[in-house]
Amino acid sequence: MKFFLDTANVDEIREASALGLVDGITTNPSLLAKEPAPDREILEEICALVEGPVSAEVVSTDSEGMVREGRDLAKIAPNIVVKCPLIVEGLKAVRILKQDGIRSNVTLCFSVPQAIFAAKAGAYIISPFVGRLDDIGVDGMSLIRDIQQVYRNYAFETEILVASIRNPLHVIEAARIGADIATIPAKVYKGLLKHPLTDSGLERFLEDYRNAQKVGAAV
Ligand code: G3P
Predict the structure, then answer these.
(1) Which atom of ligand 1 is least distant from the CA of 185?
(2) Which of the residues 83, 92, 98, 120 is marked catalytic?
(3) Is residue 4 lining ligand 1, measured as CB closer than 6 Å?
(4) CA 126 to CA 143: how far, in whole Å?
(5) Whose CA, among 17, 58, 127, 219, lies 20 to 30 Å from 44?
(6) Which of 12, 164, 166, 167 to mutate to test the pocket of ligand 1 (most atoms within 8 A of CB)?
(7) pLDDT for 31-73, tens place per residue?
(8) Ligand 1 atom closest to residue 31's alpha carbon, by position in its atom list
(9) Does residue 83 carry a catalytic annotation?
(10) Which residues of 38-47 are buried (b: 16+ CB within 10 A; e: fewer)?
């Protein structure tokens, strides 16, 4: 399972990637809007920090505009993946970008038929948003289960990226289902490695070690 960070904050990316276990990054216009630097500068910096795919989203709503933006974004670095919204114009853009050898991440997916259309259009990644479905009382993880089954039925190669992750349970469930990628906010990512029993257990081991040393020294 690949762990991506869902952020446009370079400091968060630098800190998390020091562990060497960040497989990619997803950004979107809302995440980039939180950062003071120009978007392109941020994306250049992120692509230099992380070897894996870095998703950068188009903001046009017509396919010509998306293709133009996508081609331009792809010039930033070879690991850029162009994020297109799951609308008709977005899927048209995905097909054209694919012909150019540019990979796309189809975003804002909320249903199985949408995911099938994206795969048929040639998406490299599909991004179903689990948290936003949970927000409206629909089980987001059921959508992941269904897409996984359908993609397997037809051997679609599009990778399933679980997006809009809000908590560790989303990550655990995504892994149980066998989703290819989870894109995780930095705060949730940090929490995944921690367990209070690990900390208290380590403290106890070290204390016992120190005490044993004291006894040894006194003999
Ligand atoms: O990758 C898409 C993700 O950033 C959306 O998350 O929390 O805004 O629903 P959220």
Answers:
(1) 4
(2) 83
(3) no
(4) 12
(5) 127
(6) 164
(7) 999 999 999 999 999 999 999 999 999 999 999 999 999 999 9
(8) 4
(9) yes
(10) ebeebbbebb
